[in-house]
Amino acid sequence: MNKIIFILCLIIAGCTSKKTIVNPEPVKETAPTAYIDSSKIELDSSNPFYPLKESIHDLQNQITDLKSQVVEYESRLHNPIIDTELIKLIKSPNLKNEIVMNTGTIIQGTIVSENSTQMIVKTQIGQLTIEKEFVVEIREIEPLTPNVEFDGNIEDRQSENVHTYIGKVKNIGGRRADFVRVIYYFWADDTSPIITDSTFVSGNSTIYVNGVISDASVESTEIADFILTTTIPDTVEVEYITKEIKWDIFE
Questions:
Q1: What dotted CATH number matches 65-142?
Q2: Which of 25, 120, 150, 171 has the fewest CB atoms lying closer than 10 Å?
Q3: What residues contact residue 165 under an 8 Å CB cut-off, 6+ apart?
Q4: What is the pLDDT of residues 121-147, one digit of tens each?
Q5: pTM above 0.85, yes or no
């Protein structure tokens, strides 16, 4: 009996001495640490982390515009633009008289007023008071006008019914002739006109104060070319030909 009790005590003591084993929680695996090479990072300049008022592209465009404005300004300094409104204000002197003094001096101007002893003359440099006792002669000055005439021989090229006249004109007057035109008249034997044809000369290019541009002007002492092509039918019999030059005067 005592042995049985002793064995039971041993069994109970052994059971209480056993340690309770608790299953440990599974260890969570952490991701490996990633190392970033900062030298290989590419920044996107188009999407900054704060807003920009002007981009680099806008600044480049502004610099380009500024350069073009500087170039235009410098070109105006070296090549000034002639304002047609200013040309209108420039008046050419209207000289009507030529006064010869006893010293041999010749004064050109316009007599504004005079009395028995003196005369006031308006010249290019202002008004002059001249004593009549020193005046030898007073002459009238012809106004400056153009005078255009044919210069040299005129070439006549014929091809069947087509006639081409090639020649030159010269302005021997003292002023520019504008819109110079050569006119040919073809006459019958009874002095009746058959055909009339004309052409403008190839002269200087002129810009008038009203903005019109023409290349049919001939300056004083200069020469211009002309070519006139006309067709004469076989049914028309031309007895003789006359020609003339017409022009206008514009500011």
A1: 2.30.30.100
A2: 25
A3: 154, 155, 156, 157, 184, 226, 227, 228, 229, 230
A4: 988 888 889 999 999 999 887 777 899
A5: no
Over residues 101-120, the mean pLDDT reads: 90
CA distances in angstroms from 45 to 40, 48, 233, listed in the order given: 15, 6, 80
Q: State whether residue 194 is helix, strand or coil.
A: strand
Is the pLDDT at 166 greater than 80? The verdict is yes
- Cβ–Cβ < 8 Å for 201, 217: no
Adjacency order of strands within the sheet including 126-131: 126-131, 118-123, 106-114, 97-101, 135-140
What residue ranges do the domains of the chain occupy? 65-142, 148-248
Identify the residue whose tokens are 């633009």.
81
**Percent of the chain scoring above 90 in pLDDT:** 30
Question: Which residues are paired to 139 by β-bridges?
Answer: 98
